[in-house]
Specification:
alpha+beta, 9 helices
């Protein structure tokens, strides 16, 4: 089974979506899932250091009063906590994520699903639980090494523009596909799901695709008997 998704590491809905998807995969004990992570910067012009609070950004972005924005932030935080995530959304330090996305390409290049998953999870935890700045190169270096990436290769990426073209290609593909927000999932190259699903619905989607795959294998097997 192949699952492609577009994400940004400072998006709370992406954190929720990936967490729920992973739990659904674990619940069904699927061990043949290939994850393709694609980059989608929500704000390519975001600063390299934090310049504003979550409340300020949220109220301006959605044209809300601070009171209404706070309610939405609290609601999103509760969703995360209810899902078992250490979500500290209000105190997140929003910065540029281009370097994080470029390092994600290094993780993908490893062709090791465990490293890819761990790198993604550590980035989300760094931002939403530890409230670290994802544009900080030392932070990214530590995360990448903890995920299992080679220190020399990580430093090479951080000190050059390596994988910049790959990140931009992801975003052009998203644009051409009509993807306007994240998370955005595509299952087996034919089932698109924009946004976050409840865990139970992710389970249902995965069950349907697994059934289709098993059925196709049986038909294939009979044709070769």
């Amino acid at each position: 089974m192949k699952i492609s998704y577009w994400i940004d590491y400072n998006c709370p809905y992406c954190y929720l979506g990936i967490s729920r998807l992973n739990k659904a995969i674990e619940k069904l004990k699927l061990d043949d899932v290939k994850i393709d992570t694609h980059s989608f910067e929500l704000d390519p012009s975001a600063p390299k250091t934090c310049k504003s609070s979550t409340l300020d950004r949220f109220s301006k972005k959605y044209n809300m009063t601070e009171e209404d924005a706070q309610k939405e932030i609290d609601k999103i935080t509760k969703w995360g906590v209810d899902d078992g995530l250490d979500m500290k959304y209000e105190s997140c330090r929003f910065t540029n994520t281009r370097d994080a996305h470029r390092l994600s390409k290094l993780a993908i290049q490893s062709n090791n699903q465990e490293i890819i998953n761990k790198f993604n999870n550590l980035l989300f935890e760094a931002y939403f639980s530890k409230n670290l700045e994802l544009a900080d190169k030392e932070t990214l270096l530590e995360i990448a090494i903890e995920a299992g990436l080679d220190e020399k290769e990580v430093k090479e990426v951080l000190n050059t523009d390596k994988f910049n073209n790959e990140v931009e290609l992801d975003e052009r593909v998203a644009l051409d596909t009509g993807i306007q927000g994240v998370p955005y999932f595509i299952f087996n190259n034919k089932y698109p799901i924009p946004g976050v699903l409840p865990s139970s619905e992710f389970v249902n989607v995965l069950k349907k695709i697994k059934f289709e795959e098993d059925f196709a294998k049986k038909i294939n097997s009979k044709e070769h008997d």
